[in-house]
Design goal:
Blueprint (H helix, E strand, L loop, with lengths): L3 E7 L9 E6 L7 E10 L2 H7 L17 E2 L3 E9 L11 E5 L16 E5 L3 E3 L6 H5 L2 H11 L24 E5 L6 H10 L3 E6 L4 H6 L4 E4 L5 H4 L3 E6 L13 E9 L8 H7 L2 E3 L7 H13 L6 E6 L3 H10 L5 E5 L1
Parallel strand pairs: 9-10, 9-12, 10-11, 12-13, 13-14, 15-16
Antiparallel strand pairs: 1-2, 1-4, 3-5, 3-7, 3-16, 5-6, 6-8
Helix pairs in contact: 3-4
């Protein structure tokens, strides 16, 4: 096996044009890790935030990068080599993972490449019923949905709040999902339905057919109707969008309800929420192979499916990032390797 591989690296922060397809050293297999031959890599918002140097953050929070970096956390592929101290996986196993997140949030986890070293605890067997493209689209978005709704699965400090995020029981509850057509949102819809919730999906009109297909009970096109004018007494709102005016969702919740924020930065309604008896909570997704193994059963059985917006060859990662910048993504963007 050659010591070189193809990878997409950046040597400076900037727009999609800084992503360079080039030769790079192939990683060696480290203690506790397996080397995975990548068949597909999924794109996620942290990829373009890091590519841009996290310019939206205050300067003191931005990465002090040592270039070149390889972006990406989500992979599906085949085990190429196994460190002697790992016994859960063997050469030839098909696997998928979200790699070293958020530990490598500011340095890149290395998924946009032909090979990647992955901690065994972050890996799970790839669902046999789906291909590598769909499996690579799953990890970060599916783990985000899982850790918000089903099981947090760790006791690490929460960077967004002083208390631990706690999922709420969903059976028989009414759940409103904002951004229901996106990478996280369309998986939240499916997990909520699986748990027995009544689901209201908020997305753009182009997502309505998909949402109906996924079994939502009510669809709202946010471009034509303000959600807070037509919805009341919801048990849980999960906002997968963030940005301005997240406080408006407090008015669609019943007292004692919960507002889960995937991106809570900028939310200023804590005092009002307290007055209304509403729990506002967020958490940061973390790599977890055991949870991906549980979720794999749902992917295998077709209870949950990953919707693919578009695919690009690894060499065209810059075009994939341009697609992401264009917005209105339905499901996931994936690189084929």
């Amino acid at each position: 096996m050659s010591d070189e591989m193809k990878a997409v690296r950046l040597h400076a922060f900037g727009g999609p044009e800084v992503l360079m397809y080039e030769d790079a050293p192939r990683p060696d297999v480290q203690p506790g890790e397996v080397l995975v031959r990548v068949h597909a890599a999924g794109l996620n918002p942290p990829d373009w935030y890091l590519r841009d140097g996290y310019r939206a953050l205050p300067p003191e929070w931005r990465p002090n990068a040592s270039f070149p970096l390889i972006l990406g956390t989500d992979v599906s592929g085949v085990v190429e080599a196994v460190h002697p101290d790992v016994d859960e996986f063997s050469i030839g196993d098909e696997v998928y993972a979200m790699v070293r997140f958020p530990d490598d949030l500011m340095t890149g986890s290395g998924a946009y490449a032909q090979y990647i070293g992955v901690p065994a605890s972050h890996l799970a067997s790839k669902p046999t019923g789906i291909d590598h493209i769909h499996a690579a689209g799953a990890p970060m978005s599916l783990l985000t949905a899982w850790q918000f709704l089903i099981e947090l699965g760790h006791d690490e400090p929460n960077p967004f709040q002083a208390f631990r995020h706690e999922p709420v029981p969903l059976g028989g509850q009414t759940v409103l999902i904002n951004g229901a057509g996106g990478g996280v949102g369309h998986l939240v819809v499916q997990l909520a339905k699986w748990q027995g919730a009544r689901v209201i999906a908020v997305a753009s009109a182009k997502n309505e057919a998909l949402m109906r297909d996924l079994g939502v009970d009510q669809f709202i096109d946010y471009k034509t109707i303000a959600t807070e004018e037509v919805v009341r007494n919801v048990d849980l709102v999960l906002d997968a969008v963030g940005g301005a005016d997240m406080e408006r969702f407090l008015h669609v919740l019943k007292p004692g309800g919960a507002l889960f924020l995937v991106n809570p930065l900028g939310f200023s309604g804590h005092a009002e929420a307290k007055k209304l008896g509403i729990t506002v909570s967020s958490t940061q997704v973390r790599s977890n192979g055991a949870q991906l193994a549980k979720a794999a059963r749902l992917l295998d059985d077709g209870i949950v499916r990953v919707v693919i917006d578009s695919t690009f060859p690894l060499a065209e990662a810059s075009r994939a990032h341009e697609r992401a910048a264009h917005g209105s993504i339905q499901g996931k963007i994936v690189l084929s390797v």
